[in-house]
């Protein structure tokens, strides 16, 4: 892992023995956990995260996956071990990182990725904690520090709280989370304080994240052995309950700024999604020519699925937009959803894909529990077929969360440039299953 500590006024960066400071760490550094502590010890300095300027895969060993991250850090103390150097004096591979860290921050860069920004976040947080007579007992612990959110665990004597900040294009998450917490119990953790203008939320502890790793995204899987079919049923019942409870409140949700992203929305996008411009076939990680051809061949079937969903008696509901195990908390027997950045109004079957939530061996039991909320709207076989169509077409719905969402709002779209391809490939897997 490499650190870039810049002095923009003088156009220089901190170096140690002629190169950027470097160290090795165990565990993931993608979201910034432990980065400032490690480099602070190395350099004898107080530091704050700014942004990750590079992330790359390295050759794995037999026992470890290796990744290289380069973080731009804010120097908060008066000095640090090392010497100040010009980018031109660094090794060639490090010069672009130094030059990037010295550039002025563009308007799209969020507050927490700007010099001095985290001090402003902490000032707001400490004021709110003081007002509630619940001061923090230690420094906040970074959980995520990305272009699309800042999330930290806040230690307090009665127990941890959670502080989240979101950029302008996700600002509706603040009023939406407040409304959900108040009006739909179980949809979001209790909100202790909020600032919609700045995009800040202070949340009560809603429980522990599900650690099942059902999707294979690298989530911990230490709960997998104790997770039962009844847990899967209960989770999907909760999802269905929240969706159905929202049906009569859609006007309230629209007033909060939620977009309608149902089957008609996906249908409007379908020709563009499959015309090749988003396949990235000539780029690293892009679809192969064979994958692209197979996906384009699915267009008539996908159009028919979306038309069936649009014409079905199952009504539009609240949609999470990014519903997966990492956005579900569990406390005892109760579940709570988090991270409503992509909240929208949509067809429930596009949103609730159980393969992102529960182990595959529980799929049938979980689907039965989920579909029980809509029994009577269609014969059972038709309802299940419609749900399967929703799960498949829902991969396009999820892909659009990046193409028509994150990629348009962030400073560096390349970080998210290929993420939608995971959903295209998941759709191909559906197709291969028939």
UniProtKB/TrEMBL annotation:
<dbReference type="InterPro" id="IPR011009">
    <property type="entry name" value="Kinase-like_dom_sf"/>
</dbReference>
<feature type="domain" description="Aminoglycoside phosphotransferase">
    <location>
        <begin position="229"/>
        <end position="378"/>
    </location>
</feature>
<dbReference type="InterPro" id="IPR002575">
    <property type="entry name" value="Aminoglycoside_PTrfase"/>
</dbReference>
<dbReference type="Pfam" id="PF01636">
    <property type="entry name" value="APH"/>
</dbReference>
<protein>
    <recommendedName>
        <fullName>Aminoglycoside phosphotransferase domain-containing protein</fullName>
    </recommendedName>
</protein>
